[in-house]
Amino acid sequence: MKATLTLTFLFALQAYGIGINCSGNGNCANIPCNIRDLQTIANGLDDMKFWYPGEHIICCGEKGVTAALCVFTQNTHKYIRGKQVKQLLDGLVAHGCEKCGSNPFKENDVRYGELTVNYVAVRQASA
User: Fold this and answer.
1) pTM of the model
2) Calpha distance 80→5 (Å, rounded)
3) How far apart are CA 54 and CA 72, in angstroms?
4) At 21, is the secondary structure helix, strand, or coil?
């Protein structure tokens, strides 16, 4: 009975999507910067500027190397403003994320869109 309830709970979590989390690519650990570095960079963003879905908002990593940790949105068709980027990054730091992670836009459910910090092999030129 207990195992059935546990499995039911796990399937329910999958059905509703995961909330704020520190998950990311295994290569996150290989990049010499972290979420706090990205948070510092984000503090300089214009609150009203916006970025399109999937666009690399900011990135950090070694100079001259294309691989990086980047901030971008997923699971959304909406743009995001600088103010919301800052708030969602603050949430990842408060959650204890160090390298990578995702923070949902609303209801702690990534199905409604999320801000993600993750490893990218090639950062976009604008970030």
Assistant:
1) 0.85
2) 38
3) 5
4) strand
The number of beta carbons lying within 10 Å of the beta carbon of residue 1 is 5
Quote the tokens at residue 106. 């609303």
> How far apart (Å, rounded) are the C-alpha atoms in residues 10 and 79?
31
Using alpha carbons, select from 80, 107, 111 the residue that is nearest to residue 15: 111
How many domains, in total, are found in the chain? 1
Residue 10 lies in a domain: no
**Strand, helix or coil for residue 7:** helix
- Indicate the residue type of 109: D
Residue 41 lies in a domain: yes
- DSSP codes joined into one string, 42-102: HTTS-TT-EE-TT---EEE--TT-S-EEEEEEES-SS-EEHHHHHHHHHHHHHHT-SS-EE
Give a yes or no: residue 2 inside a domain.
no
pLDDT per residue as tens digits for the range 73-114: 999 999 999 999 999 999 999 999 999 999 999 999 988 999
First to last CA, the chain: 51
